[in-house]
Design brief:
The chain is an alpha+beta fold. It contains 13 helices and 15 strands. A hairpin with a 3-residue loop joins β11 and β12. The radius of gyration is 21 Å and the shape is globular. The termini are far apart. The relative contact order is 0.15. Bound molecules: fe (ii) ion. Fe (ii) ion (FE2) binds next to loops.
């Protein structure tokens, strides 16, 4: 027997009450929150594809089928696209061969047909700065009273992408995965419908196989995942105006049921700063950047740059940036948060 739970659906008011008495409520359960994103000033505008085309049409990205892969048995098909071109595909999916002629960078039109799933543009980078005006359109950017420390953590939006706009056709698939960087995340449904399946990090060994990757939720393989039935499957359907809230390392699998427009944010606060600090993903990206231009910090010997890992360099560079920043501005709310981040980084063994 598969253990199954429905993801609780709560009103924004109820979510706020629960979060007031337990600010770390996402650790133990995901929630579908109703009535939160309707507060966003952009709520109506962002549900309009012509508006999104005007605002983001020129950005380039990849569109893939499935969105990405997390299981070594699955092949990825991928095209390089501009967002407006992807929206053309969305309007006329039968014209895909013509729209993406010569643009396949993984697989081909034939392998795409064999996948039998639409392309999914899920790598659009629309935020690179903590003070981007877009955040005014989506205020409050996280449901109250949850805190959001993203803009206080140095280079948060520069090192990795943490804000996503997803427009997808029915059948578009995001396979089971855990998000990077130990963040919390939400998936806010501006239009359409998605089916979501989540698993707790406590059940990780049941749905993950180090040789293969993550379980195919729709077609579980008993040989590769002999204990998958022991994992509790949390399911829900996300409809327009709802937001799915997820805690650190909750694995999730998402299928678009009706053409969808969604936004997703990764965020950090007092409840997951320790997981964020310990995460190797941001440190790895940051370390790689530092190695490209080490003179900007003047912190590393050429020996260190050659011998040490990107993660080591990224963490050491971040500690130095935090320490220097705190010398100049030691006080206030932001300073106290940066101190917490620094002490979490200092507690990690190298
Ligand atoms: Fe995710």
């Amino acid at each position: 027997m598969v253990k199954q739970k429905n993801i609780p659906i709560v009103t924004y008011e109820e979510f706020q009450e629960r979060a007031k008495s337990n600010p770390n409520l996402l650790a133990k359960s995901p929630f579908i929150v109703e009535g939160y994103i309707q507060n966003w000033p952009c709520y109506e505008e962002w549900r309009n594809l012509d508006y999104l085309r005007k605002k983001f049409g020129k950005l380039s990205a990849y569109a893939c089928s499935p969105q990405f892969t997390t299981n070594s048995n699955v092949k990825l098909t991928r095209v390089k696209t501009r967002f407006d071109q992807y929206l053309d595909y969305l309007k006329n999916p039968e014209k895909i061969e013509e729209i993406y002629e010569g643009l396949w960078c993984d697989g081909s039109y034939e392998t795409f047909l064999a996948q039998n799933k639409p392309l999914y543009c899920g790598s659009l980078r629309i935020i690179q700065e903590a003070n981007d005006r877009i955040f005014d359109d989506l205020n409050p950017i996280v449901p109250k009273p949850l805190e959001n420390w993203n803009s206080i953590l140095p280079f948060y939006y520069k090192i990795c992408n943490h804000f996503w706009l997803y427009v997808s056709l029915p059948g578009a698939l995001t396979p089971l995965h855990q998000d990077n960087n130990g963040t919390f995340a939400y998936l806010a449904q501006l239009d359409g419908r998605k089916r979501v399946t989540l698993y707790s990090p406590e059940d990780f060994d049941f749905y993950h196989n180090s040789k293969v990757g993550f379980l195919d939720v729709l077609n579980p393989n008993d040989e590769e995942f002999p204990k998958w039935r022991s994992a509790t499957k949390w399911t829900g359907e996300l409809t327009q105006g709802q937001a799915l809230m997820m805690g650190t390392d909750w694995a999730h699998h998402v299928v678009t049921i009706e053409q969808s427009i969604s936004v997703s944010l990764d965020f950090v606060n007092q409840n997951n700063i320790s997981a964020y600090a310990a995460s190797e993903q941001w440190a790895n990206s940051f370390g790689r950047r530092v190695k490209m231009k080490p003179e900007a910090l003047g912190l590393f010997s050429s020996e260190e740059l050659k011998k040490k890992s990107d993660v080591y360099i990224g963490r050491k560079a971040m500690r130095s940036i935090l320490k220097n920043g705190l010398k100049n501005n030691n006080n206030g709310f932001d300073g106290s948060i940066r101190k917490v981040f620094l002490s979490e980084l200092e507690s990690l063994s190298e």
